[in-house]
Write a structure and sequence with these properties.
297 residues, alpha/beta, 7-stranded mixed beta sheet, 4-stranded antiparallel beta sheet, 12 helices, globular
Length: 297
Amino acid sequence: MKKEYIPCPICSSEHSKVLYEPWVDVDDPVKLYGAASGIQGTQRLVTCKDCEMIYENPRFPEKVILEGYTSSMEAGHDSQYQMRVNSFYRALKPLSKVIPPKGAKVLDIGTAGGAFLEAAERFGYVAIGLEPSLFLVNEGKRRNLKIEQGTIDNHPFPKESFDMVCLWDVLEHLTDPKNSLLKIRALIKPGGILLINYPDIGTLMAKIAGKRFWWLLSVHLHYFTQETIKKICNYTGFEVFCFQKYWQILEFGYLEDMAIHYKIPLSKFLKRRTPKFIQQIPIPYYASQTTAIARLE
């Protein structure tokens, strides 16, 4: 299927300017969308002239993208499960004053294998996940976590079911993020919280990296800054009142594999010469990801 042009996902403007042109030609949806790591250089990115949102345009139809996501069998991503649990738990602790208290009911959309659910339960929440990938849903259920297969457009939850809804590295994947936030709003109880973690293209790191910014991937359809996160939340009835840098913890060897995947110079050379015990060392790092906390207006 051919790619199609879309209006700005925030303000619906048809006026944009080209930011980056693609330099890699891949049209297989499974390769483009079936893995969390994605492929660099496949997208034509534009900036909206009216609200400065950055997004892929043109892109494949929604049906093609969702089929790619559903086919995901991201065992490599899930191999760092315990590292991700620890990262999420460490991220929740400093947010304790601005997110719901222990005992709250929380929904994690795009929960993958359920790492956030385990961290949230450790934090004291009643946590439920929603995930399109059947492979990852089964991995989560194998861990006795509460996960439903589906998306925000196809789920079993009634209105005002949750004290907090979380989107950890998800909003940038959604084909219609504004409409999705409107649907998410209906799931949150009055006075509830929305948590959005996203790769921030507005950081100094991102600006220095330019078109080689490591989060410019085929699986990411939209690229937010703090300002555009505020704008899309305002459009959908949320008020952002807190931003926090997101530090992850992953094994050094896994980070080396990601560097190889992203074709970072000398990464293969270094991986071959890294002893096994060093590859297994947990490494905390910040890679331009930001967590935004918003409340219902």
